[in-house]
Amino acid sequence: MGHLGLPSETKSEGHSLYPEARLNASLIQGGIESIEVQLEPLDDATSPPVITALAATSDGRFIAAAGDDHAIRIIDALTGEVQKTILGHIDWIHALTFSADGRVLYSSGDDGRILSWRYDHPLVPEEILKVPYAVRSLSVTSHRGLLAVSGFDNEILLMDLTTRLLKYRFEPTCGEQRCVKFSPQGKHLLCAGRDGSIRVWNVDSFEELANYDAHVGRVHNASFSADETIVTSVGEDRRLVRANLSTGKIESQETVGMSKLMSLCLINDRIAAVAGADSLIRIVDLEEARMLLELQGHTGTVASLVACGNALVSGSFDTTVRIWKISSAKGRSEVSLPISTTDFSFDSNLQIR
C-alpha cells in the first residue's frame, strides 16, 4: 500500500467569527489563487454555520452551501459574494445537488425532508419526499430524470422526478449510507457507508453489478469515472481506493495523510482532490499514485469538495467556503516530488449528471 505524503503543519490565518461576510483573495501554494468566503450568522445565531454540504451549477456561476444552521446560502462563484440565504429545513443539512441546467436545487438532511427549490422569485421550497431518518446524500441524473436518496436506513430510494413517485428501493448492506452517486450518463448507481463496502447497480435493470469491500470503516464519498468503469472512493481508513467495474478488481489503494478522509472531487479521470480531518486539501495524480499539490487555508475538517466550472470549492467545519482556481496550476509539488506535467483541467462530463 502506497503513501501519498504526510500532512505538513497547517498554517493558521487567524480566522475570527464575526457577522460581516469576509472575502480574502490570496495566493496559495503553487501559485493557486483562492477566495475565502466567511458566511454571516443568521439573525438569531451567534456564529456562522459549520459547512457540511456543497453543490455547484454546471455553468460554474453559483455555489450552494449549507450546514448546521439549517439555512442554504447561494454564492456567486466568481466573486464569493452571498446572493441569497434561503430557509426551509428545521435541522442540519447534509445533502445538496443541482439539476443539470442549474434551475433546480435539491436539499436534505437530518429532518428527513427532501426539498426542491426552483429558480423563481421568491424562492419557495416544495417538499417532494419525507423519510423517517436522517438523509446524508442526494444524487440527480437529468439523463433519466431520477433522484437517488440515501441516509441512516437500510434502503436507497430512487424517485422519478417527473411523476414524483418512487421507482425503486435498493437494499444496501448496512443501515448507514453516507454516499449515493449516479454515473455521469446515469446508467449506474453506487452507494457506500458505514461497513466500508461499495455496491453498484444498473439503473435500468436494477441488477447488482458490483459489491466489494473497499475500506475498513466508513466510506464518506465515491465517484464514477467519465466512462463509468472506475469507482474512486475515500474513507475513514485514510485510503484512496480505485476499483475497476469491468474486471471486478481493486486497481489501487493508497494511504493519504494521517487523518480520516471525508471528501473527494474528481477533477478529471487522472486527477482528484481529497480532504478530511486534518484541514488540508491534496491534489493527487491517480495514475502515478502521488501527491501533486497540498492546499492550505482551512483550519477545520474539510467536509465537502465540489467542482464549479474550472474551480474547486471546499466547505469546512471552520465555517468558511473556499474557491480555488486550480486550473491555472502547472502541477508544482510542495513536498519535494518531481514537477508534474499533468493537466489540471476539469472534465465537464464529470460535473453534469
Fold and architecture overview:
This protein is an all-beta fold and 353 residues long. It has a single domain, classed as YVTN repeat-like/Quinoprotein amine dehydrogenase (Methylamine Dehydrogenase, Chain H, 7 Propeller). The chain has strands at residues 2-3, 22-28, 32-38, 51-56, 62-67, 71-76, 82-87, 93-98, 104-109, 113-118, 125-130, 135-141, 146-151, 156-160, 165-170, 177-182, 188-193, 197-202, 208-213, 219-224, 230-235, 239-244, 249-255, 261-266, 271-276, 281-285, 290-295, 302-308, 311-316, 320-324. A hairpin with a 3-residue loop joins strand 2 (22-28) and strand 3 (32-38).
What is the helix tally?
A: 0
Rg calculated over all Cα atoms: 19 Å
Spans of at least 5 consecutive residues whose pLDDT stays below 50 are 1-29, 331-338
Spatial strand sequence of the major β-sheet? 1-23-22-21-20
CATH class: Mainly Beta
Estimate the global geometry from the Cα principal axes. Answer: globular
**How many E strands?**
30
H/E order of the elements? EEEEEEEEEEEEEEEEEEEEEEEEEEEEEE
